[in-house]
């Protein structure tokens, strides 16, 4: 069974702990992250999301972004993170 998580509009310092908790609660399950509402991405939430990507891969599970907003994509890339991580599985960014 796949789990869907909608990311909040502001992924800042205050959002990092709740995001981490939410992700840990569904660890081991195929998960989609809906980024359609994201307007701002901070460094700490970026780290949480990158850690989640690595964890899901190590667990052999899919963690996929869907409906990635322009703001999320541009700020993700501005931090130097790979845009390929935001692409649906099997597609290149």
Characterise this structure.
InterPro entries: MlaB-like_STAS (IPR058548), STAS_dom_sf (IPR036513). The chain is of the alpha/beta class and 93 residues long. The protein has a domain at 18-81. Helix content is 42%, strand content 17%. It has three helices and five strands; from the N terminus they run E-E-H-E-E-H-E-H. It has helices spanning 13-25, 43-59, 70-78; strands at residues 3-6, 10-11, 31-34, 40-41, 63-66. Strands 1-3-5 form a three-stranded parallel sheet. It has a two-stranded parallel sheet with strand order 2-4. Helix 1 (13-25) runs parallel beside helix 2. The chain is globular and about 30 Å long.
SSE pattern? EEHEEHEH
Radius of gyration: 12 Å
The CA-CA distance between the termini, in Å, is: 26 Å
Q: Within the largest sheet, what's the order of strands? A: 1-3-5
What is the 3D form? globular
Helix content: 40-55%
Beta-strand segment tally: 5
Protein topology:
Layout: E1 3-6, E2 10-11, H1 13-25, E3 31-34, E4 40-41, H2 43-59, E5 63-66, H3 70-78
Parallel strand pairs: 1-3, 2-4, 3-5
Helix pairs in contact: 1-2
